[in-house]
Amino acid sequence: MFIFHKDTQLDDLGNGVTRRILAHGGKMMAVEVMFEQGAIGPMHNHPHEQLTYVLSGEFEFTIGDKKHIVTAGDTLYKQPHIMHGCVCLKAGTLLDTFTPVREDFLK
């Protein structure tokens, strides 16, 4: 399947965060998440495995009891049910990949 960026919808999540659902199907989903400087991705958990690739910007991420600053090119893994969240230190974009598909994002 092909998903063209121009055909996707940008969803405003509020507080300086926007999200764009990219390709998804089967057991995988890709999501682009844009953060303004100072925006917060609140601490949360879910039953999905998640990989995050930092496309741009600078973020302070917390995963479980570990906290690190990450920048473009860094990758993070979040196992199912682990608490995680971030603070955007410099405006940027993350590429999240989930398995299975985040059905809650599609509603």
TrEMBL record:
SUPFAM superfamilies: RmlC-like cupins. Residues 32-88 form the Cupin type-2 domain. InterPro entries: Bacilysin_H2HPP_isomerase (IPR052535), Cupin_2 (IPR013096), KdgF (IPR025499), RmlC-like_jellyroll (IPR014710), RmlC_Cupin_sf (IPR011051). This is Cupin domain-containing protein.
